[in-house]
Write a structure and sequence with these properties.
It contains 13 helices and 14 strands. By secondary structure, it is an alpha/beta fold. Ligand FO1 binds next to helix 2 and helix 6.
Length: 309
Amino acid sequence: MRLTVLAGGIGAARLLAGLATVTDPAQITAICNVGDDLEWHGLHVSPDIDSVIYTLAGLEGEFGWGLRGDTHATLEALRDLGGDAWFGIGDQDLATHLFRTARLRVGMTLAEATADLARARGIEVTVLPVSNDPHPTIVQTADGDLPFQTYFVQRRAADAVTGFTFPNASNTRPTPGVIEAIEDCDALVFAPSNPFVSIDPLFAVPGVRDAVLRTQARRFAVSPIVGGAAIKGPAADMMRALGHDVSALGIARLYAGLIDCFVVDNVDADCVPAVQALGMDAAACDTMMTGDDGRARVATALLEIIERE
Ligand code: FO1
């Protein structure tokens, strides 16, 4: 079965890692958000792509990003020099950004650099940045507009969020293969990622939303909200700030019209009828991806739902 996954960072990476162990990884395509990308001391950092590649390679750090066991000597040296050191790049992780940036400098695309990184890590899943073009997510806050990592890491997600913009979206094009992966798959899965800063930026790239609306594939979304809280990251706070219900049902409302089936955790099984009332199917399974076993278990349950639908 050809599976295409719309992916943000850590939640998507874990689901992809589970899927890659229970189905043929060569049949899986991940379309990755690039809205979190930043330039770090002249280097191009793509946190969501890296989380996906590191997790698929079994190398992710303890918080789900960066490399496990990495050291921070370079960052400390930079701090000693009085340089900007708020974004925690590890020493081994740094090699990824040097490798990527060197390729971009000689005119390769982000997708080509990503393919080289995935190949070097032995990844069989096709990992595609949604666009090769710059496509930053800007977080609108009471204190002004902030690039995503400034909001999230430097200012510790402490600002009151009023909205999001993708100022370069109209100048972006989907990476070659992105539209085809959405249109020509058997199942399209929205990973349990943040709807505002992981999935929406994908839809902001011209042509992507239309492809999702047009595809003949069955479209599934896995809720990133379980029991009224986000599994990871600021999704719950963002929903609350923007006046949405902080619940799986609140996520289903955001995706109404875009998906055919919404998958909630067993603890939210009681919202299935309300989700169905939105005009989509709904199913409940265990969605907690703790450890390698948890990822495989969730992926198996999701595949069963996909095959049943
Ligand atoms: N998240 C943090 O909270 N603090 C950091 O210093 C940090 C550094 C970092 C370095 C490389 C990388 O790939 C990711 C990193 N992240 C860090 C995670 C990242 O900010 C977010 O998790 C994603 O952008 C959200 O998907």
